[in-house]
Model the fold of this input.
Amino acid sequence: MGKKNILTHRFCFGTPDNPGSAVWRLNTFVKGDVYLHNHPQFGNDIHIALHASGKFSAKLGTDRFKLQPPFKDSNGLYWGPVMFFRKWSREVPPPPPSGQIQKVCWLGWPKAGSLFILKMLYVPANVGWVLHEDDRLLFNNIPARLFHAEMSLHILLQEREMINSEVSVCMHKPEVLEFSSPIPQINNAEMIRISKTDLGPSAIIHEPFVLSYPSGSEI
Done:
């Protein structure tokens, strides 16, 4: 990323003895940019960037993909990407936690028939807000900037029952991801899908997948 990191917040779905995802790292920088990644050795090449300019993107190697811009609600609050997590059987286990494990905020597992929604909320300096009773505050008052204005970034977690369409997705077979050649350190792969929510912010979705290579390829 080539910038001076000033704060790192770590969180992981699941529990220390039964992780449900890789450890996510939310890094904030001097100029107010925020970067989110879950593969520290490839953090410079694979990450989600929430720039102080309001331009959000995902980087994969040399490619960069635009994400939905922050959504401003009727209260003057700005919402960044939303992360969805539900329990499912993984073909590939998550990479083992590394680094400063003692600083990881373990989010646990959602109840049967429910999912977790992790929200990123930007609050302008002159705007008040109240934590909703359905939300749990994970990290608060993280210094950041959005549209080059000073903001406080808050990370919230909600657990809610899945709607019918989400339950039906759980019943489908895992999506097959096809690659032309083996991926380095494939046993530590952590795949996510990025979509769009009804409100506008991008959705970062953890979901089942299986890996596929052309006949004759070596894994």
In short: The longest strand covers residues 149-161.
